[in-house]
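tl;dr need the bound structure. longer version: we got a ligand (zinc ion) that a collaborator sent over and nobodys looked at where it sits. i said id run it. heres the input, straight from their email, havent touched it
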Amino acid sequence: MRTSDIRRYHANEIFHRIRIEPQISQKEIIRRTGFDKSTVSSIVTRFDELGLVVRTPTAAGNRPGRPAEGLSISPDSGLLVGVQVESEELGFVAAGLDGRPLAHHRQSFNRKVKTLDRAVADGIAAVTAASGRTSPLLGVGISLPGLVSTEGMLVHAPILGWRDVPVLDLLSRIVSAPLYIGNDVKAAAMAEHMFGNCIDLDDFIYLFSGSGVGGALFLDGEIYLGAHGLAGELGHMKVVPQGRLCSCGAAGCLSAYLSEPALAAEVEARGGKTVRSFDTLLDRAEAGDPAVVSVFEQAGEILGAAVSNLVNIFNPPVVALGGDMARASRYLGQSLERSLGRLAHPNMAAQTRVIFSEIATDRPYLGGVALALDGVTGLDASSVIP
Ligand SMILES: [Zn+2]
C-alpha cells in the first residue's frame, strides 16, 4: 500500500470504531485496531480539528488526575449525499455522518451524458433542501453502474450504453463539494459493512442483483481487488453447464438466471405478459401469478448453487444478498435454502449465515453515502474509491 492509502485505511478504521462504539476511549481504539499510539492520536486530532468527532468526559475512568475521555462522532456537523445512477432514474439520499438517512429524492433520467451534470446538481440541491439541515455538505458519493477507472472514468456501463465517460471531470465542474465515485456494487457492499447487517464483520461475501448480477469479496476488512481491481464478478460464476447465454458472451452464468432482464425474459417465454420492471415482477408474484412464482423459484435454486460455491471456497461467516433479490426474498428464499442444503459442504453450510440485506429494501442509495463517508473520513483520500 502507498503511504496515503495506509493513512486512509487507518483513518477510516478509526472513524468506524468511533461511529459504532460511541464514547470509546483513545486507548480502547488502540487496543481494538492494533494501530500505534501516535497514528491514532494524530488522526483523532485531525478529526477533532475538522469537527467530525467530539470529546466528552466518561465516568469509566474515574481515577484522580486526568479524567478519561470518550470519543463520539458529531452526526450533525456535516451532511453527506449519496447519488445512485440507474438506467432510468437518479436516486439521491442525504445523510448525517452517522449514515442515518435524512431525506430521499428520485428523478427520472434520460441517459444522455450531456445532461448528467445538471441533473445531478439539481438532485443534490433538492435532497439537501429536503434534509432540513444547514450543516455543510462534506462529500458527495456517486455510485455508478459499471466499471470505474482510477481516474474517475466510467469505462463501460452497458445499462446506460456508455463507454469512457469522464464522470469525475464532468461533475467536478458543477458540484463544489468533494466528490467520491465508485462502482455501485462495491459501494453497496461498503454500505453493508458500514451500516447494514455486516457491520463490523471482517469477512463476508456480498452478492447483488439488478440489471446484472455482481458482487464483492470482503476479506480481512477490505474489498478484495485481485490483480487489476476486477475481482468479485460473482454474477459470472458458471452455475448451469451449457446453460443460457449471458451478456458477457459465455453461457450458464448466474446473471443469465437472476438479473432483471433474465427473469423478465423467462416469464415472457413462459407466456407471461411483457415485464416492464422488477416492480412488475414483484406485483405479479404478490398476486400469485404462477409463471412469475415458478421463475423466481427456479432462480432461487440456481442462486443456491452459486452461494454453495462461495460457501465451499471461502467458508465465510456471512453471505449477504442485496439489490433486487433482497426485495424478492419471499419468493427466492425457500428454493435457495433447499439447493444450498443439497450443494454446500454440510460442515461449512452450518458455519455460514446466508442473509438478505435489509438496507437494500429499507434504505436505498446508501452505497453513495458509503463512498462519501469513506472519502470524507479517509482524510485526503483520492476521489475514486476502488
Ligand atoms: Zn456472464
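gonna send this back to them w/ a short note. The longest strand covers residues 101-108.
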